Amino acid sequence: VGMAEPCPLLNDSGNDSGESTSAHSRLYNIGKDLDVLNEIQNAVWITNFQQDDTRFVWANTSALRLWSKPSLVAFISTDITSERSLAVKKIHQDIFEDVQIGRKIVIQRRTMYPSGVAVTVDLEFRPINLIISEDTEPATYVMVTGVPIIIQEEGHKEMIRSHE
User: Fold this and answer.
1) Cα separation of 63 and 81, whole Å?
2) How many Cβ atoms sit within 10 Å of the Cβ of residue 103?
3) Which range of residues forms the domain containing residue 139?
4) Most-buried pick from 15, 53, 75, 82 (CB within 10 A)?
């Protein structure tokens, strides 16, 4: 269950001309601009949800802990497509269409299974324009911010997993 909403417009021009640019039209360089996100407690990671190229692109240190990954290289190397169910494939396609194409912000509560352990997380998916490397064109990816929540009982976790 989630909701999608259009990205708000911000006046980035610093004047009163009424010129507005999308909050997500700025272009960021993955090697220079995202390191500051390692300073925050919230897990933040970048994902591409294109059907033929669904993959992790980047993560801050909090996301590496959430996903139980020892390094950024291990995180990026994670196979997130080969064992996904039809329901998860549909979720990924919806996120791609809403966020990467439609440029909306999507908020969902999901249960993920890093290293096979259930973690329920409140997630915000938002578009971000990135240059991954000097030899690639800028593209829109999904910046995911995750805040884990506590689920009290093991039976509840198993019930959730049975519906995914």
Assistant:
1) 19
2) 17
3) 25-162
4) 75
